[in-house]
Amino acid sequence: MAQKARLLVVEDEAAIRSGLVDVFVYHGYEVETADNGDDGLRMGLSGKFDLILLDVMLPGVDGFEICNRIRQQDRQQPVIMLTAKSSDEDIVQGLTLGADDYVAKPFSVTQLVLRVQAVLRRSGIAEDNQREICLNNGLVIDTENLCAGETAFTRREMDLLQYLAQQCDRPVAREELLARVWGYANHMEIETRTVDIHIAKLRRKIEADAASPEAIVTVRGAGYRLMLAPQ
User: Fold this and answer.
1) Cβ neighbours of 25 (radius 10 Å)
2) Nearest Cα to 73, choosing from 49, 47, 99, 53?
3) Where are the domains of the chain?
4) Which of 66, 60, 92, 61 is nearest to 79 (CA)?
5) Which CATH architecture has domain 6-121?
């Protein structure tokens, strides 16, 4: 029998927390909860969960700080942040800190379950990923250890790089990246910004000048293209 995925739900609103437990237990997950930021941080740093659902506004340590601390310890820990629907700034900040995804409140339970499944699935897109990605600027990226020298990447950033590397002969549209890397079925404006935010983060890590990118280039009207070193 396959082992159940373990989720941590960090949410201070009792009704939402209880509802999420019921939903994910029904879908076959093991679920533990925390109702404040201090417990959420302690449990989140334990390393025993396959995915963390993390509210932004919490008593004690807030969700942003928890995400930041988790990322400092483990770049591969999947984290989905739950944000207020009207707070685009929350979404941008969460993604900048390394969250794999966000879901805005009030949310569709079905959508949330699909998002969790997509993040846990990780890289069904990448069965034949190469161990290294060699860029045209001379940078060599270690895809297994999520790094290039002293520069560290999150799992989501690496998924994005690997997909772009697989499609290096053409530009890849944002909509395709949302579908294949994030698993999104619908492409809202804020979701498109998700791609742009991750591309901007990657450029700051891999480009000599992020304002004049040479490794991840924008093809007007077509998307993004990763420029690899000649074979």
Assistant:
1) 13
2) 47
3) 6-121, 132-226
4) 66
5) 3-Layer(aba) Sandwich (3.40)
Strand order in the sheet with 6-10: 30-34, 6-10, 51-55, 79-84, 101-105
Q: What is the pLDDT of residues 38-59, one digit of tens each?
A: 999 999 999 899 999 999 999 9
Beta strands in 68-215 (DSSP E): 79-84, 101-105, 132-134, 140-142, 147-148, 151-152
Token duo for residue 207: 């480009």
Rounded CA gap, 31 and 95, in Å?
A: 24
Q: CA 96: distance to chain centroid?
A: 10
Q: Say if strands 79-84 and 101-105 run parallel, antiparallel, or are unpaired.
A: parallel
CATH of domain 132-226: 1.10.10.10
pTM of the model: 0.67
Domain 6-121 matches domain 132-226 at the CATH topology level: no
pLDDT digits (tens, 9 = 90+) for 168-201: 889 999 988 987 888 775 555 556 788 999 999 9
